[in-house]
Write a structure and sequence with these properties.
2 domains, 5 helices, two-stranded antiparallel sheet, alpha+beta, 8 strands, Alpha-Beta Plaits
């Protein structure tokens, strides 16, 4: 009886350690080689659409040292609803922030922010500023938007 209990405890511990290892492998797969190798912070919740955009850009820009001259492929433009405005490729979304959030820092870097209340903001961000918005302090969640199409 004691052997069965010990074997059961051992198997449970093995399963827990396997799940932890898989989680770590997935989290390191979010590198983006734009100006610098950056990993998405774990303290911020990113929507699945934002993570898809991050991963797609990571694949396309892995050979770029400076992404200011980067032109996204038609596949990325269509898939993520990126618009060309004033010579820059822009994606839009929502920011959930803490009350201490200072939008002026992001606006100085060329990201447009519209506040709805203390914790909800809408943003328009050039693709070459995606690393800045992903790592900006006092942001708790980032979601990219998707346009509504009339059926």
């Amino acid at each position: 009886m004691v052997k069965i209990s010990l074997i059961t405890i051992y198997l449970i511990l093995c399963c827990i350690s396997c799940n932890t290892t898989k989680h770590k492998e997935i989290s390191h797969n979010t590198e983006l080689c734009m100006n610098t190798s950056t990993i998405l912070p774990e303290s911020v919740h990113f929507s699945a659409r934002f993570k898809m955009l991050w991963n797609d850009l990571s694949k396309e820009t892995k050979h770029f040292e400076n992404i200011d001259s980067y032109i996204p492929s038609k596949d990325i433009i269509n898939k993520h609803h990126i618009k060309l405005q004033n010579g820059e490729y822009i994606f839009k979304g929502y920011l959930h922030t803490t009350p201490l959030f200072d939008k002026h820092g992001l606006e100085k870097s060329g990201i447009q922010i519209t506040s709805y209340n203390d914790s909800l903001n809408v943003f328009s961000c050039p693709l070459n500023k995606i690393v800045i918005i992903a790592n900006y302090p006092e942001i708790t969640s980032i979601e990219t938007s998707r346009p509504i199409f009339k059926r």
